[in-house]
Amino acid sequence: MPCTSVPSGPRNVISIVNETSVTLEWHSPRETGSRDDVVYNIICKKCQADRRSCSHCDDNVEFQPRQLGLTESRVFISNLLAHTLYTFEIQAVNGVTNKSPYPAQHVSIDITTNQAAPSIVPIMHQVSSTLKSITLSWPQPEQPNGIILDYELRYYEKELSEVNSTQVRSQTNTALVDGLRPGTMYVMQVRARTVAGFGKYSSKMCFQTLTDDDYKSELREQLPLIAGSAAAGVVFIVSLVAISIVCSRKRTYNKEAVYSDKLQHYSTGRGERTPSIFLDR
User: Fold this and answer.
1) What is the mean pLDDT of residues 248-274?
2) What's this model's pTM, rounded to 2 decimal places?
3) Separation between Cα atoms, residue 80 and residue 22, nearest integer Å
4) What is the mean pLDDT of residues 60-77?
5) What is the rounded radius of gyration, in angstroms, for the C-alpha atoms of the chain?
6) Is the pLDDT of residue 280 over 50?
7) What average pLDDT does range 194-207 have in this prediction?
8) Where are the alpha helices (DSSP H) in the chain?
């Protein structure tokens, strides 16, 4: 049986940073130790800016497809902190690595994350619905990580697949989705956008447009309110007209009274003038 040994370290590692995630790719070791069972482990460390101290990454950091025992020379790492320095060690191991008195051979790479995209919108609320539209609202993400530029709402009929989804943009945290089918259930999600890009879509929530029966029932319930509002509007208008007429007549009466007083005063004044006396000589 031929002698086998541990593999050498991976080679030519490259990184692609996208906001708070990174993709690492590398070449296989030059020496495999005469074995075909080489796999890779990823060691993640979060470091201070001066690189003097580092600690293991938080548990919420995600590795796709996995952190240990990678058979492919590629890994996607997400949920990193924004504007943070990280060191990643890529170890190459095989079936005899654990029996070796020496640590596994590895290659290291340092990366610094960028500004984070906004966090997930926590929930959506239905404001109203009609036969062909649904109005939704939602709170701002708990961690906007910057100024929210707009939101993107994605929706599709529940009976169809996500491939058939439609996207609409909204400058505020409300949106009117129209052009829908009556009595149909829709799956809806929303995500926020900043200068760093889009955050992740919110959890899927279902909302339904009104059926014909629902619409007619809702209309019947609103009829008394509509009638009452209309009656109140008529009473208000009639009151305004009556007040206007009364005020107009009062102004006319006051003008006539003032004119009558002036005329009477003028007439009385002319009657009290001293008559001229003429003497015959």
Assistant:
1) 56
2) 0.49
3) 9
4) 95
5) 41
6) no
7) 90
8) 212-271
- Reference 138, options 184, 195, 198, 205; nearest CA is 205
Q: Say how far apart CA 144 and CA 117 lie, in whole Å.
A: 7
Which domains, and CATH codes, for the chain?
11-112 (2.60.40.10), 125-212 (2.60.40.10)
Per-residue pLDDT, averaged over 181-185, amounts to 96
* Contact in structure between 204 and 187 (CB atoms under 8 Å): yes
Whole-number pLDDT of residue 154: 96
Query: Nearest CA to 106 among 117, 91, 121?
Result: 91
DSSP 60: T
Residue pLDDT, tens place only, 215-233: 677 666 666 666 666 666 7
Q: Say which residue, 268 or 16, is predicted with more confidence.
A: 16
Return d(Cα 10, Cα 73) in angstroms, integer. 9
Provide φ and ψ at 178, rounded to 5°: -120, -175
**Average pLDDT of the chain to the nearest whole number:** 85
> Which of 16, 155, 12 has its CA nearest to residue 77?
16
Please compute the mean of the pLDDT values over residues 56-62 and round it to a whole number: 92
Nearest-angstrom CA–CA distance, 121 and 270: 90
Q: Where are the beta strands (DSSP E) in the chain?
A: 11-18, 21-27, 39-47, 54-56, 62-64, 74-78, 85-93, 106-112, 125-129, 133-137, 150-157, 166-170, 174-178, 185-194, 197-198, 205-208
Beta bridge partners of 41: 91
Give the largest CA-CA distance in the chain.
Answer: 177
Q: Please enumerate in sequence order all residues whose Cβ is within 8 A of that of 74, keeping only pairs 6 or more positions apart, or say none.
A: 23, 24, 25, 26
